[in-house]
Design goal:
This protein has 454 residues and is mostly helical. It is 78% helix and 0% strand. It binds 4-fluoro-L-phenylalanine and sodium ion (NA). The site of sodium ion has 7 residues, from α2. Keywords: Membrane, Symport, Transmembrane, Transmembrane helix, Transport.
Length: 454
């Protein structure tokens, strides 16, 4: 029998899937967001909770997403719908796909603004602007950038166009080609930075901050942030990994590829933390400095290094690439759905989506200047897009996916897709997806709601 394939295309082999999914996972979440939320939430205890969430919740849900995508072979919305109907359920299960596609657009809008900052730093490094810069000047420079809406708009627009161009190229000529080129280089440069940080003096202090377990630092809000980040960093709960799974060859093993992706993503986050915190402590910076952390510490480090502007330039290029490969996966689920639904080509589909993201992004970048007084609750628009997606929509999407895979899909379909060599792995996954993952997500939600109202 001919293997059923997606109308959008397929990865050439399982390694392309691993690289593409790693490209989706490894991004600003690892290098920008993880260090700064760890800093804001007190370090070690937060890191431990985050690691537990990856293992107990993230990995089982990632397996489910790949499985659903590969069996459905369509955009997440339509894959969920068909699998639901096939299992005798309501087509309304596709709602999870809808929430996901929306979350993708929302994440993309603020992600693109931050990626725009990265592009601005690429240009600055190429110019030699940061040579010998001290921590005070580096902080100042970042502040000036945030106040300048026009510059932010230019770089945000550039980034949206970069992403649109690749997604419009389709699975083989767009996504596959893009991920194949830059992924290996990213790892090489990350280790160069780590080596620098290990020799810069305060490595021990940085290490301690990341791994010293002090439970008194932990709040339920921090636990929610750790859970939300485990979804964000693995690109889960919104269909990115599901969409990529729909292009995966049938022969490839889901369990081992997922493990590889999760391990790589976690390593990159920890290495980024180990690179950034020693610089923070060596320069008496504040680990809780927030979103600007990476943009202040890295220029300081590169500014002092011999030939630092070259490394700095390369490094920001690679962060830009990491952001790029992730943003591609933010757009793919919605793009694939538009193509399926309206039977139009990728170019118009991506143009429409890009325009939407671009508009939302203007409100995000305005949060730092012309719209900074406009608050929803106590949050700016930028903060709201981040909070609502990472801490609410992705975990909710994940909860749906866990219930769907664990309780709704027929068991033979699961066994057929997973075909674990040992029964043990199937049982471990099945138990996690039925009990641990949904209960953990629901409990953390409930506790936070309870704390809000008492
Ligand atoms: N995983 C990406 C990161 O860590 O930067 C961000 C992301 C991509 C989140 C795709 C969600 C997603 F669906
Ligand atoms: Na990530």
């Amino acid at each position: 029998m001919q293997e059923k394939l997606s109308i959008h295309g397929a990865w050439s082999n399982r390694w392309v899937f691993v690289m593409a999914a790693t490209g989706s996972a490894v991004g600003l979440g690892n290098i920008w967001k993880f260090p700064y939320i760890t800093g804001e939430n007190g370090g070690g205890a937060f890191v431990l909770v985050y690691l537990v969430c990856i293992l107990m919740v993230g990995i089982p849900i990632m397996v489910s997403e790949v499985l659903i995508g590969r069996r459905g072979r369509q955009s997440p919305i339509n894959s969920m719908k068909d699998l639901a109907v096939e299992s005798g359920l309501s087509p309304r299960w596709s709602l999870a796909g809808w929430v996901g596609a929306l979350a993708g657009v929302m994440i993309f809008s603020f992600y693109s603004v931050v990626a725009g900052w990265v592009l601005y730093y690429v240009a600055g490094m190429a110019n030699g602007d940061f040579i010998d810069i001290g921590s005070e000047m580096a902080g100042k420079r970042f502040e000036v950038l945030l106040a300048d809406a026009e510059t932010l708009l230019i770089w945000h627009s550039v980034f949206v166009v970069m992403v649109m161009t690749v997604v419009a190229g389709g699975v083989s000529k767009g996504l596959e080609r893009a991920t194949r080129i830059m992924m290996p280089a990213l790892f090489v440069l990350l280790f160069i930075l780590l080596a620098y940080s290990m020799t810069s003096g305060a490595f021990g202090q940085g290490f301690d901050f990341l791994f010293h377990f002090d439970p008194s630092q932990l709040t339920w809000n921090a636990v929610l942030i750790a859970l939300g980040h485990s979804f964000f960093t693995l690109s889960l709960g919104m269909g990115s990994i599901m969409a990529y799974g729909s292009y995966m060859p049938k022969k490839a093993s889901i369990g081992s590829t997922v493990m590889m992706i999760a391990v790589l993503d976690t390593l990159v986050a920890l290495v980024a933390g180990l690179a950034i915190f020693p610089i923070v402590f060596a320069n008496q910076l504040d680990p809780g400095a927030g979103p600007g952390l990476m943009f202040i510490t890295l220029p300081v480090a590169f500014g002092q290094m011999p030939g630092g502007h070259i490394f700095g330039f390369l490094f920001f290029v690679l962060i830009a690439v990491a952001a790029w490969t992730s943003a591609i996966s933010l757009m793919e689920p919605a793009a694939a759905w538009i193509v399926e639904k309206f039977g139009i080509k990728r170019v118009p589909a991506c143009t429409a989506l890009g325009a939407l993201v671009w508009l939302l992004g203007i409100a995000c970048l305005g949060s730092f200047n012309f719209m900074s007084d406009y608050k929803i609750g106590s949050m700016t628009f930028f903060d709201l897009m981040d909070f609502a997606t990472a801490n609410i929509m992705l975990p909710l999407g994940g909860l749906f996916i866990a219930i769907f895979a664990g309780w709704k899909i027929k068991r033979y379909a699961l066994e057929d897709e997973l075909s674990f060599k040992q029964n043990f792995w199937f049982s471990a996954w099945y138990f996690s997806i039925r009990y641990i993952a949904p209960v953990a997500v629901a409990a953390i939600f409930a506790l936070n709601l309870y704390n809000k109202f008492t």
